Amino acid sequence: MALSTPLTQQAVSPLYLTAAVLVAVLLFLFVQSKRARLGHIPGPWLAKYTNLWRGYQAWRLNHHNEGVNNYQINMIGRYGDVVRIGPKHVLVYDPEAIDTIYGFRERLDKAKWQAHLFTGTDQTALVSIQDEKTHGIYRRPIAHAYSLSSLKGYEPYIDETIEKLIKELDKHDADGTPINMTRWLQYWAFDVMSKISFGEPLGFLDHGYDFNGMIQAQRENFRYISVANNFPLLDTLTKRNPLLKWFTKKPSMFFTFARRVVSERLAKASKDPEAQSQSRRHEDLLGSFIAARKAYPLMTDLRITHLTATNVLAGANNSARAMDATIHWLTEHPEAQERLNNEIRSVNMATMKEVDTEGPAALELALKMPYLDAVIQESYRQFGAPANNLERVAGRSGLTLPNGTHLPPGTVIAMNAASMAMLPHIFGKDARVFNPERWMQQKGESEDEFHERRLRMQRSMLVFGHGSRSCIGKNIVQLELYKIWATLLRIYKVS
């Protein structure tokens, strides 16, 4: 009998070990939740202890057609404007808090893990930098390239790419081939951003399909980010796991392309040093970045490559999403197409001779079209907003929201641009419907009332972020969208 005792102890010891680990994990989650001092913030029970809840919700959003962040919108009615969505994470739905969280007064830092999520090891990318001071240092050398005064220099590139798109569409139309406008506009979005950034297109319009798999890879990457944004442990176990680097694929064709173009241009600049100082006469974004090297030593070759490549990936994706939403809506509303076509033609005919209206629309004309502006604003609101939470960390004194709620130091505070764009008390009871009329003056509405209502909607939109961290490329995206729609909807009808 005595011989059986060690065997029994040996058999049950793994159970004790498992139980001990489980108790330790539960104790850790409990202590972590209590230390956050967020017991006064309502939210789902599971979210108090783990990020699994919000990670699952983000995964469900990616795999089910439930609309934009449906679960977040439903939480507003249940928990209010301030909701606890993680052990130390709080989501805010109050537009009055936008300046408090993202404005220049508090200057809250970004969450540490978020820096790695979007750019991997490149911690000098603007989206990666945590603190405001460092962000300003790295933004300064490239700010001029994205300014309103620089837009005119990019317009010829956009015109050239629009003409290429029209040529391809006409060729397929003449062949009787059905045209998938959504797909072709996606190809155009990537080619035009590459043209503005590198001075040459990626070649999607020439090939007529996703020839290098880049578009699909980007789609999958953004899906991954939307989940990892809510469940950081996923990123730690996958992309940031050093063991998995052994299985990493070779660099994509796009990054091979980026390195080649940048290397060639840098070599050319080294032979002509004078060209580096002519920042106001740059041909494209890459030219501007190279010209900035003389005044800003931090503009290294690697940084220039990362900046230019990121510009294409982020800018093309945002434009493509907004155009996709617009196309789907226009096919369902032919009367809106007719209205846009008439507005575009009337503005063109009122300002220039008919013979001059055949090419790509000039930006100054596109900006004079109020209904076109309303359609573009609505496309931003509905599908241009990222589904990721825009996170900031409360400083040493914590943060008090406009409604009086105090959040302790270290609390991760976020707003979600997609959900904010669906608030019914800001955008109307039909907030979840694509309706450009909300951006137009209503019958019986005075000028002052209209401007106040529209300003309230614009202030609640976080499509391009807010404050010093707002998207640096938003002017370029807007330039593209106004010009492409003012041109295509004058020539074609989609169905």
Automatic annotation (TrEMBL):
Matching InterPro entries: Cyt_P450 (IPR001128), Cyt_P450_CS (IPR017972), Cyt_P450_E_grp-I (IPR002401), Cyt_P450_sf (IPR036396), Cytochrome_P450_monoxygenase (IPR050121)
The keyword Oxidoreductase belongs to this UniProt entry's keyword annotation: yes
Sites where the protein binds heme: 471
Pfam families: p450
Coiled-coil region(s): none
Superkingdom: Eukaryota
UniProtKB keywords: Heme, Iron, Membrane, Metal-binding, Monooxygenase, Oxidoreductase, Transmembrane, Transmembrane helix
PANTHER family linked: CYTOCHROME P450, P450, PUTATIVE (EUROFUNG)-RELATED
Membership in a protein family: Belongs to the cytochrome P450 family.
Protein name: Cytochrome P450 oxidoreductase
